[in-house]
Amino acid sequence: MNTNSTDPTIGRLIDGRYQVRSRIARGGMATVYLATDLRLERRVAIKIMHPHLADDVEFREKFIQEARSAARLAHPNVVNVYDQGQDSETAYLVMEYLPGITLRDLLSEHRTLTSEQTLDILEAVLSGLAAAHKSGIVHRDLKPENVLLADDGRIKLSDFGLARAASANTATGAALLGTIAYLSPELVTRGVADTRSDIYAVGIMMYEMLAGEQPFKGEQPMQIAYQHANDSVPTPSTKNPRVPAELDELVLWATARDPEERPRDARAMLEQLLETQSQLQTALPANATAVQRTVVLPSAQNANSDAETQVLGGARALVPVGAALAVDDAPSALAASADKRRSRGWWLFGLVLLIAGLAGGTGWYFGAGPGSTVTIPSSVVGMTPEAATAVITELGLTVEAEIVEEHDPIVENGKVSSTDPAVDTAIGRDAVVTIRVSIGPKPVIMPDFIGLTEEAATVVLTDAGLIVQTDERIEQFNADVPVGSIVGAYGINSDEKLIGLKNETEYFDQRPVTLIVSAGALPSVKGKSFDEAVAILDGVGLVGEAGKETFDDDVPKGAVISIAPKPEGAAIRKGDSVFVIVSRGPDLVEIPNVVGETIADAIEQLEGAGFTVDVRTLIPRDRWDDEFAVVANMEPGSDEKVKRGSTVIIRGDF
């Protein structure tokens, strides 16, 4: 869906300064656009609160809180905030624009990062987060989507939309804020967050970068939340054997379920990360990835010059290794724990040799023999049935001869949409797999929603299997439909208009629908001055522009006659520009002088000039073209101007 093509914000001038160019991203509270700051002639990112949230005091306060929190931070690893304000009903935040990708994009493409990449990214994240923690700010929404990787190599932390003062330590209320996959146990169970909650989220991100997946999974958010509250995060090396033991220990320290056993803030974890990085550069396990600097990042030591923020190997926080240790013992405890794990490997190796004979037979049975299992790869989704059959057969599985067809709102017609058992399921070798092939989205009959209230129409369309785009509603002026009721809708794009549908037009399951809501009748501006009319239109969300001046017999010169849409004949919606048509007054023209002309010639001249002629004479009509049948006088006289189309009386005589 080309969102830019139907987004009324594209092209808009915000607060007379920021020209919106294109959409970058959309979140739960706001949409981020690329814009040009016309005053300073630079590109910026402008975050605009969703219109349906603008009237919500709580959301507006959160939006303003983000601006205030981020503006207090001046750090090379934090996205700069330039401005914040409100234009009409639009609340906005202007930020530094960083062309590039997010950490989520990087993980989606590569899944697992190397140790060096993970440490480089974490150093930048922790440097920026340390500045926030020093200023008394808790981010509360750390996740890969909020880590920006610029094209020029800079790494910056963004989106302090859920930030709170670190000293507040307040509960979130009924709803848990933030992304569930990165919420700390105390946020899940008590709704309370401090700097150590941010550290937990950093630890989860570190696990995800090293292991290639999140530590906890579930079909429902509450299942994931339960695991965060009750289970310990495993070491990333269980999924990726190349992860060094030192990084395992760092993940365990950051994700300890008890906040008291985590680093006290980002600076404490950053100090340990730099020390761990130094240890890995001098001595790495044979099976670990090399740690070499590949990206030039802002140095943690240079971020702030005062002694308090310089990373010089000072005090450390507690480490979750055995019993709680003294603060100054954390680095040595981490190193000792890693050494202990490596030394323990020697006697484990001997034990493995001792029982190798017994384990060999068992390993064959479950690894390659009848008891082994294979996993149906998710990559078969989107393949042709033939290609998917080849992949599944190569794994030692049997594909059911009969292919099952099913509707799917996403997968292309004719491609594999699912399997039975489902993809990513481990099943025994020689098991039978059924392939399901998409026949496209399920057709639905559009319900009758025209004239319903917005809330009622949303329910009706959702029940029909469609997705109502609540953050992209369109307000259109319509004198015949009550305010708040539906006048029409759009489908995937503006060319697929659904106006006036009543149980007759076929659409498709899980497709988007954008509602067009009545904004009531247009305001009356007839007889107003141009400036008065523009002010009235601005009050209802329209931009008035000077249109072509027109003659009007009833409206005085300089007063407004009406407004007209741009382009002509189009519907008028909030945010549109419209033409303001101003009167030139009555259309007055000069009467031709026909005195002395024959009556026939006088009639021809006057009618040709747009006048109606009233002839008053005793001369017969068939003699009006005689040279002696001339006009003796006329009324009005030829020296007067009258409205075009007026009646002129002529009197004739021999």
TrEMBL record:
InterPro entries in alphabetical order: Kinase-like_dom_sf, PASTA_dom, Prot_kinase_dom, Ser/Thr_kinase_AS
Q: Which UniProt keywords apply?
A: ATP-binding, Kinase, Membrane, Nucleotide-binding, Serine/threonine-protein kinase, Transferase, Transmembrane, Transmembrane helix
- EC annotation from Swiss-Prot or TrEMBL: 2.7.11.1
What residue stretches are annotated with the PASTA domain?
371-439, 516-584, 585-653
Where does the Protein kinase domain lie? 18-274
**What are the recorded GO MF terms, alphabetically?**
ATP binding; protein serine/threonine kinase activity
UniProt xrefs under PANTHER family: MITOGEN-ACTIVATED PROTEIN KINASE KINASE KINASE 20-RELATED, SERINE_THREONINE-PROTEIN KINASE YBDM-RELATED
Q: What is the name of this protein? A: non-specific serine/threonine protein kinase
